[in-house]
Amino acid sequence: MQFSYVNPTEIHFGKGQIASVSKHIPTRRKVLVIYGGGSIKRNGVYNQVAQALKEHSWLEFSGVEPNPTLETMDKAVAIAKAEQVDFILAVGGGSVIDGSKYVAAAACYDGPGWDILSGSQPVDKALPIGAVLTLAATGSESNPISVITRAETHHKKSFKSPLVRPQFAVLDPDVMKSLPEHQLINGVVDAWVHVCEQYINTPTGAMVQDGYAEALLKTLLTLGQQFHERDTTEQSGDQWRANLMWSANQALNGLIGAGVPQDWATHMIGHEVTTLYGVDHGRSLAIIQPSLLRHQMADKRAKLEQMGRNVFGLDGEDALAERTVDKIEAFYQSLGVATKLTEHTEGKERAIDDILGQLEAHSLVRLGEKQTITLDQSREILEMAVL
Ligand code: NZQ
Ligand code: ZN
Q: Looking at residues 168-190, what average pLDDT do you find?
């Protein structure tokens, strides 16, 4: 175990916390509020933010789409530069926060913003960011990652910099009351897979990371099982949303991944499924992951067995890892989430070729914990996930 760890994002959690935004941004700052397609106008979050910023000078940029595009975010970059904005407040889900991170970095760079995503331009400066989270899923609100799609080339790419990690994040679970059910489910699945990508790998005896990962998985499993009864009482609904918001945050804030092997192959292949077919991010993962785990069984067996025992409470040694993958798949299906691409597209062979073409074009030819998932292996995984 060898790592450096810091997560300086201040979290302000709970009902009514949006009002505290007024205290977290100095009034001398000129703020650009960035949001999505308008859900915050309908559920009252916009009004709460406007109220909190009444002593500030601020302007707004709306229209960030799910899976935010470079093309859209570059319009916000132009505004940030022209208006000499010096603070970005992201109000939304992972897409808005990721888009805002890109704006924060690109606004401090004179060249084309794609340089930041391609890695040819390291981020050496960024505007400070705050986040008001409205959808629990990605953990973007307190991590240094941003995922942006170049629509022109269907290329979904991420960059990472400590300079774009939000200074603060407001997590008021009440704002999730307006989320459609399928988005809540996407959040459960995405957070679950984030834990898996950092946990179902070669065992290294990291007891704290493993134990905390298992606590998060058990929480998410319980939330999934409670999904249809979550709003039976006001208290149960409040608790359900609070637990999802906090567990999704903890799943990808850097803690459980510190000093342990990671494997983001499901995400890398899933991103191509999203760019090609418009499948929601969380759902793209549920299509790929069970097949990928089965295909990579030799490397995944020990941790799958541990997960079977400690998360699903399975007994016995016989085919324990295989039974664990079956449980994972059944979990997604119990939430109405498809675990095969066939449910999303016609022309199965063509789909496999198209996804592989994307992986190759984006140089994603060595994936997985040990970089051993070549294009041939990705093809085998896709044949299991698609055919
Ligand atoms: O745009 P609006 O109108 O706000 O509607 C959004 C959007 O349509 C809606 N929504 C959000 N909060 C709402 C709400 N509707 C009603 N009430 C609310 N309170 O939900 C829709 C989806 O929002 P989006 O932000 O796209 O969802 P999510 O948080 O799942 O983010 C997905 C994006 O994050 C990236 C994904 O690739 C994808 O682009 N990821 C980012 C990561 C990171 N930064 O660490 C890691 C993840 O693995 C992931 O790749
Ligand atoms: Zn994800």
A: 98
Pairing verdict, β 145-150 and 155-160:
antiparallel
User: Could you report the per-residue pLDDT of 50-86, keeping only the tens digit for each?
Assistant: 999 999 999 999 999 999 999 999 999 999 999 999 9
Ligand 2 midpoint to CA 193 (Å): 7
The finding on whether 39 has its CB within 6 A of some atom of ligand 1 is yes
pLDDT value of position 346: 76
CB neighbour list of residue 308: distance below 8 Å, 6 or more residues apart: 314, 320, 321, 323, 324, 327
Q: Which atom of ligand 1 is nearest to the CA of 187?
A: 30
Q: Which of 146, 175, 204 is the last residue of a domain?
A: 175
CB atoms within 10 A of CB 321: 22
Q: Which domain holds residue 116?
A: 10-175
Residue 306 sits in a domain whose CATH number is 1.20.1090.10
What tens digit of pLDDT does each residue of 196-214 get?
999 999 999 999 999 999 9
* Residue 362 domain flag: yes
Which of 92, 22, 94 lies closest to 58, judged by CA? 22
What's the whole-number mean pLDDT along residues 221-228? 97
Query: Does 191 contact ligand 1 (Cβ within 6 A)?
Result: no
Number of domains the chain contains: 2
Structure tokens at 17: 């916390």
